[in-house]
Each structure stands twice: as structure tokens, then as C-alpha cells.
Design goal:
The structure holds 2 protein chains of 2 kinds. By secondary structure, chain A is α/β, with parallel strands linked by helices. Helix content of chain A is 42%, strand content 17%. Chain A has 2 domains: 182 residues, D-Maltodextrin-Binding Protein, domain 2, CATH 3.40.190; 120 residues, Periplasmic binding protein-like II (D-Maltodextrin-Binding Protein, domain 2), CATH 3.40.190.10. A 5-stranded mixed beta sheet of chain A has the order 2-1-3-10-4, sandwiched between helices. In chain A, strands 7-6-8-5-9 form a 5-stranded mixed beta sheet, with helices on both faces. The longest helix of chain A is centred in the middle third of the chain and has 18 residues. Chain A is globular, with a radius of gyration of 20 Å. Chain B folds into 2 domains: 127 residues, Rossmann fold; 65 residues, Winged helix-like DNA-binding domain superfamily/Winged helix DNA-binding domain (Arc Repressor Mutant, subunit A, Orthogonal Bundle). In chain B, helix 1 links the parallel strand 1 and strand 2. In chain B, helix 1 packs across helix 5 and helix 6 crosses helix 7. The radius of gyration of chain B is 27 Å and the shape is elongated. The chains are: A alpha/beta, B alpha/beta. Chains A and B meet through helix 3 of A and helix 3 and helix 4 of B. Chain A: This is CmpA/NrtA family ABC transporter substrate-binding protein. Chain A: Pfam families: NMT1_2. Chain A: Keywords: Cell inner membrane, Cell membrane, Membrane, Transport. Chain A: It is found in: Endomembrane system. Chain A: InterPro entries: NrtA/CpmA_ABC-bd_dom.
């Protein structure tokens, strides 16, 4: 069996990666996988660079940042699949939550506007800036918060103080008043709420019902040397997804995730995040694991929007060099999954179930809508 | 010259600090050791190089500084020459990463990183040896107690008792400590039955 080293971060959205080990899907696909639980994203990035990991559960933005020449960049990374959709939540201090409630803010647009008033008030009385924490600079979390703030008329660069903190320390800083809020993958926001350190303001689905988040990253040279293994690895993870969507497996999934070997978090917090109304994590292999080129482009668009990269890259080429829908189709076909015909789709604008063109039959997709009604359209030649 | 070591493992941090103090190229350097990264205290030290344990969750906080601050230490992994790649990889494998400010001599970086990696490996060896020594000691105690049980129950001497256990271990292909554990477990069982009657 081919040995494969896979890194993951202790988050609920590493579910497919850890399930495939616990349920034996890797060995069923002829792979001898050793998982490495990593304490931070920088380790995963560097270990992929230096060949100490062959693949990893990563923020979708991590391989894209590298593709755009941001940060350490040795070697190429490909993403043959997404590891689900959604899973993050924004937590704020109870104090801030009271202010929002006092202002009658309940929707995302209203809460962003309420925050703008808080920012103006603090400046007027010479109090410190509103401080928000994210787990990594080039992260979906960062882009979600920026997009949300901007919708309320806040300049995220000038009017907010940003700090990068490990999710495990965010709740402490919130309780101590060092930060006003944070965005993190589950189950850490739910744990913060259970411990009374803060309140969940919104979770991914309220921002974007089908939000891309993590992908499987594969070291390019390893993938080139072992093309069949990349497909086998993707298939093992898709099979984990087929297991995870069955309602009868929900309890086992939560228990597995909370284990010390994996997320190492209280079962109660893991369950709260996975429950209806929680962090909205979708693990369905059919609707939430295809590596849409339009996802890559949406993220690249955010890098440009926030001035993190110059507008002089061939974005289509960058996206297609990293995201590999062709590999997903190879892996998915023998599992009886329908194969999307296009590599891109409109992102946003679908408030109800809709269909994606696929063979042998179309795929019924859950709603795909952003809170501000925005639509990121595919350019059709 | 200022070097900052960030490691939640105090003993290992001390071992790395000692290694750096013994390094010829670092005479006169100030070495700071923190269990965790604290942004507010960084400017007071202004380190030329930061060595951080990969297991520290704070690494992403440190890593993000390079984006907002031009003079912040940058990850060594980012601008290594191909010739240094091996040192960086070995350090990562040992569980340590490094950040340096621009313009700091690449040779010095490689040398310091090697020392840190060596000390991380040394710590792992020490910990491994220690747990093995503890296990050996526990096994010896078990064997001694089992010997005592055999001596009393069969009225034999110490050497004969040990010989019996060793023969049984060889015949069954199991470690002698496992045989000793069996003897103790069974003798406990017999005692309990006696008590019950």
C-alpha cells in the first residue's frame, strides 16, 4: 500500500479526513494513511512545501494565496475536492450583543450597520477600535467578516483592528475584553457560547447558504508522481461523505469528531455545531465537495477587492491550475455520483433549491444565496 | 542580537536556549524564552530571530505579522535559498520553525536553526529514554513481587523462582514482565477466593 501523510486542523470540517481513517476508507482504496493533527495553518503550509505532508485539510484560500504569490511558496498545490460547505460562526461579546439588540438589529445587514454606530461612538468618546480576530490572514473568515462589515458601511482597513489568533484562544480574549468578536470554524464558537464567553451572532449559512470553506490540498509533485493515488484519496473522502450524510450516523459522527485523536473538544459543543441551526456544515459529497472554479474565482476576487494582490494575474489560469474538477469527476464516477458538466456556476442568487447540469442526471442543489443578494456570475463566452 | 524562543514546553525551551548560548556565533546575544507569543511585548524585545515550536498554536499570529509590518520577522521557509531547504525541512521535521528579520545573515540562520532542531530531537530522545527507564523500573518491581509470590507458594529460593519465570517466558514467547503480571493477577484471584470462604 502507498503511504500517504495527511495533515488536518482540529475542526469539525476536518470530518471527511478523519472519518475516512476511522471507517477504513483509505485502506479500502489501497492507501496507508497516517494523519497528523496540526496546531496551526502555517505548519500545514510549510510541511506541504517541504514534503513532510503529501496532502492536507486546508482553508480554501491557502493554496490560492500561494498561487497568487503571497507568502512562502515552494512547490505547487492542487485541490481535487472541497471538504464540504459552511461550518464557521461569528461570535461577539455579550456586551456588543446587547447593544445590537437595543438597536433592534437582527439581520446581518442591520447588525453591520449597528456595528458602524458602535465604531462611531467609540471614536467620539476616544475608546479603542473595535477588534476582531481571525484564525489566519488569508482565510475565508477574513473575507466573510470584511464583506459583512463593508455591507454596513464600515471600512475594514481603517475602522477595525484585526488580530490573528488560534481558535483555541479566541474565547479567552473575548471574555477578557481584548477582542470584541471573532470568526472561527466549529466547534470553538459553540464552545465559547456554552462557556458563556460570548454569543454567536451568525453562522456561515446566514452569510452565504452554500459557502465554500475547506479543500483537500495535495502537494503537486506528489500528485504528479502518484496520479492514481490522488483519485483514490479523493474517492475515499467522497465515501466518507456518503457515510456522513446518513441521519443514522449523526451520533457516531459527533462522537468521533470530539475524540482526543481528532478535534479534542467537548461532545456537547461538537453536537451544538452540527445540529440544525448550528454552524451549517454540509458534508454531502454530491452538493458540497465539487471544486467549483467559480469558488476559486470568488476567493481570488476577494484577494483583489481587499488589495491583497495586484490585478495583473490571469485569474482563470490561477484558479484552474489549483482547483481540479477533472480529478473529482474521475473519483466520483464509480461511486454513482452525478458529474457536473460545467466547471463554474453562478454563486449566489438561488434562494430555493435549483439544478446543476450534470450527467447521467442533473443535481438538485440546496439554495445558494448571499445575505446581501449579491450574485457572482460566470462569464459565458 | 536578540533571539526569542517560543515553546509551551518549558524544559525543551531551556534546552534550546542552552544550545544557543553554547553556539560560537551567538556570543553576547540575548536569548528570551516565552511559553506563548504575546504581541504586546514583542516591540520591547525587537528580536532578530524567533524560534517557535510547531506545536504552539500561536504560530499563525506570528506568521501574520509579516503582512502588516514591514520590519516584522518573516518565516525562514519563505526565503530560503535552495541550499538551506534541507535545514528548514529538518527543523520542521523536528518540530520547530523560525522567523528572521530581513538582512540577517543566511548562514547564521541556518546554523541557529540546526542547533534548535538538534535540541528538539535531543529532547525527544531524552523523553523517550525517560519513559523507557520508568517502564523498566515498573517491570522490575513486578518481577520482584512475582518472585516473592512463587518463593512463598512453592517454598523455593529466589534464584529458582526467577529461573522458573524465565523458562516460562521463553516457552511461551512472552516477556518475563508479562509472566510476572499473570502470576500476580492469579495470586490476587486466589487470595480473594480465600477471603470469600
Amino acid at each position: 500500500m502507498l503511504s500517504v501523510r495527511i495533515g488536518f486542523s482540529p475542526l469539525n470540517d476536518a470530518a471527511l479526513v478523519v472519518l475516512a481513517e476511522a471507517l477504513g476508507f483509505y485502506s479500502a482504496e489501497g492507501l496507508d494513511v497516517s494523519l497528523s493533527r496540526e496546531a496551526n495553518w502555517s505548519n500545514i503550509r510549510d510541511k506541504l512545501s517541504y514534503g513532510l505532508l503529501d496532502a492536507a485539510h486546508v482553508l480554501a484560500t491557502l493554496p490560492l494565496a500561494r498561487g497568487l504569490g503571497l507568502g512562502p511558496a515552494i512547490g505547487h498545490i492542487i485541490a481535487p475536492m472541497a471538504l464540504g460547505a459552511n461550518g464557521n460562526s461569528v461570535v461577539i461579546s455579550s456586551k456588543l450583543k446587547e447593544v445590537f439588540e437595543g438597536l433592534g438589529a437582527s439581520t446581518l445587514l442591520e447588525s453591520a450597520r449597528a456595528l458602524r454606530m458602535v465604531i462611531q461612538h467609540r471614536r467620539a468618546v476616544s475608546e479603542g477600535k473595535v477588534t476582531l480576530a481571525i484564525p489566519f490572514n488569508y482565510s475565508p473568515h477574513h473575507f466573510v467578516l470584511r464583506h459583512w462589515l463593508a455591507a454596513g458601511g464600515i471600512d475594514p482597513d481603517r475602522q477595525v483592528q484585526w488580530v490573528v489568533l488560534p481558535p483555541s484562544r479566541m474565547a479567552d480574549h473575548l471574555r477578557d475584553g481584548v477582542i470584541d468578536g471573532f470568526c472561527s470554524g466549529s466547534p470553538w464558537p459553540q464552545m465559547a457560547e456554552l462557556n458563556g464567553d460570548g454569543v454567536v451572532l451568525f453562522s456561515d449559512p446566514a452569510f452565504w447558504t452554500l459557502k465554500p470553506e475547506k479543500v483537500l490540498a495535495v502537494r503537486g509533485t506528489w500528485g504528479e508522481d502518484n496520479p492514481q493515488a490522488v483519485v483514490a484519496l479523493t474517492r475515499a473522502l467522497l465515501r466518507a461523505g456518503q457515510w456522513a450524510v446518513k441521519a443514522e450516523n449523526a451520533d457516531d459522527l459527533a462522537r468521533l469528531l470530539s475524540a482526543d485523536l481528532y478535534v479534542r473538544a467537548p461532545l456537547e459543543a461538537v453536537q451544538a455545531a452540527l445540529a440544525t441551526g448550528g454552524a451549517g456544515l454540509i458534508l454531502d459529497p454530491q452538493t458540497a465537495t465539487f471544486p467549483w472554479i467559480s469558488h476559486a474565482k470568488w476567493f481570488i476576487g476577494q484577494f483583489v477587492r481587499w488589495g491583497l494582490t495586484e490585478d495583473n494575474h490571469d485569474f482563470d489560469a490561477v484558479a484552474r491550475r489549483i482547483y481540479r474538477p477533472d480529478l473529482w469527476r474521475q473519483a466520483a464516477e464509480p461511486l454513482g455520483l452525478a458529474l457536473p458538466i460545467d466547471d463554474e456556476k453562478d454563486e449566489g442568487g438561488a434562494d430555493v433549491n435549483w439544478k446543476v447540469r450534470a450527467r447521467p442526471h442533473d443535481i438538485v442543489m440546496p439554495p445558494n444565496a448571499l445575505f446581501d443578494g449579491g450574485v457572482f456570475r460566470v462569464h459565458r463566452g | 542580537m536578540n533571539v526569542l524562543i517560543i515553546d509551551p514546553d518549558d524544559a525543551r525551551a531551556a534546552l534550546v536556549a542552552e544550545g544557543l548560548r553554547l553556539d560560537d556565533g551567538l556570543q553576547g546575544a540575548t536569548i528570551h524564552v516565552w511559553p506563548r507569543f504575546e504581541l504586546a511585548r514583542l516591540s520591547a524585545i525587537n528580536p532578530d530571530m524567533v524560534i517557535i515550536a510547531c506545536e504552539s498554536p500561536d504560530r499563525d499570529t506570528l506568521d501574520a505579522l509579516q503582512i502588516a509590518h514591514e520590519h516584522a520577522p518573516r518565516p525562514v521557509a519563505m526565503f530560503v535559498d535552495r541550499s538551506d531547504a534541507n535545514t528548514t525541512a529538518q527543523a520542521l521535521e523536528a518540530g520547530v520553525a523560525a522567523y528572521v528579520v530581513d538582512g540577517y545573515s543566511p548562514n547564521r540562520v541556518a546554523s541557529i536553526l540546526s542547533v534548535a532542531a538538534h535540541r528538539f530531537n535531543l529532547m525527544q530522545t531524552l523523553r523517550h529514554d525517560l519513559s523507557k527507564a520508568r517502564a523498566d523500573l515498573a517491570a522490575r518491581k513486578t518481577i520482584d513481587r512475582a518472585k516473592g509470590v512463587l518463593m512463598t507458594s512453592r517454598g523455593i529460593g529466589e534464584e529458582e523462582a526467577y529461573r522458573l519465570m524465565r523458562k516460562h517466558a521463553m516457552d511461551s514467547g512472552r516477556p518475563i514482565a508479562a509472566i510476572a503480571e499473570d502470576i500476580l493477577a492469579i495470586s490476587d484471584l486466589l487470595k480473594k477466593r480465600d477471603d470469600g470462604c
